[in-house]
Design goal:
Strand content: under 5%
Distance between the termini: 19 Å
Shape: globular
CATH superfamily of the largest domain: Hypothetical protein, domain 2
Largest sheet: none
Structural class: mainly alpha
Order of helices and strands: HHHHHHHHHHHH
Number of domains: 2
CATH architecture of the largest domain: Orthogonal Bundle
């Protein structure tokens, strides 16, 4: 049976809570088994470069994820690899801060093409300063502050642009990449984007596909409860949702 047929069958479950729970179980199982569209899984974590140190991996995620807004994600990560190949130095905060705004803007435009270039420059500058001053230039140190996931989430939110979507996306990518053992991970909600809202609507779990605060909050609540009921990690379910939403729709 095709994955779409299996999913359509689950969407016939009348009780919405049970439906969401079964969808979580289905997606996590398919994703972890590398079946169907999940055979070649494409997430931020899957773009980690080979032959790099842990610090280099964390810097790659830190700088690229903060630009993962209002842009095509697959293109962003493809170009991010090209930038890495041209010189790892462009992912070192001290080097970034030595560049003029004009040079940094030119670099970002040439490789990463973020839609809001001035905001991108501001983020890389301000977040580089904070990373140097408070975390010894290493994003991994953010996750050494505490073993409480909520405290880590709060620390991430202090960086410019690391809100509920980008911040929690970075949290997910770092925990999945480095297998940090944190308590209260289920109290950190998964990042919600247009794919999550659209799919939740298509599956009959919310009343509209409008991207607004009400739907964002509702979708977070639905999947947090569903993951808890299914006893599955949202860190994996969110990866599966992203792949499904971006490749099939």
């Amino acid at each position: 049976m095709k994955q779409t047929d299996s999913l359509n069958k689950l969407c016939q479950i009348k009780d919405k809570n049970e439906r969401a729970c079964e969808i979580v179980k289905f997606f996590v199982s398919e994703y972890e088994s590398h079946r169907g569209v999940f055979k070649n899984r494409i997430n931020a974590e899957d773009h980690i470069l080979e032959n790099t140190t842990d610090k280099e991996k964390s810097l790659f995620l830190f700088y690229i994820i903060q630009l993962d807004y209002a842009t095509k994600s697959q293109r962003l990560y493809k170009e991010a690899k090209k930038l890495w190949a041209s010189g790892k130095k462009y992912y070192i905060p001290q080097i970034i801060l030595k560049m003029s705004d004009i040079d940094l803007k030119s670099l970002l435009k040439s490789y990463l093409s973020p839609r809001y270039i001035n905001e991108a420059v501001k983020r890389w500058n301000l977040n580089s300063k904070k990373l140097i001053n408070e975390y010894n230039s290493n994003p991994i140190n953010i996750f050494k502050l505490s073993n409480d996931a909520k405290k880590i989430e709060n620390a991430i939110r202090e960086f410019r642009g690391f809100g509920p979507k980008i911040g929690n996306f970075f949290f997910r990518a770092m925990v999945n990449t480095f297998d940090f053992k944190l308590k209260n991970i289920n109290k950190v909600t998964q990042p919600v984007d247009r794919h999550d809202i659209r799919l939740s609507f298509e599956w009959g779990l919310i009343d509209s596909k409008d991207i607004n605060k009400k739907n964002i909050t509702k979708v977070k609540e639905i999947w947090q409860e569903a993951c808890d009921n299914a006893d599955k990690s949202w860190l994996i379910f969110d990866r599966a949702m992203w792949v499904w939403g971006s490749l099939l729709n």
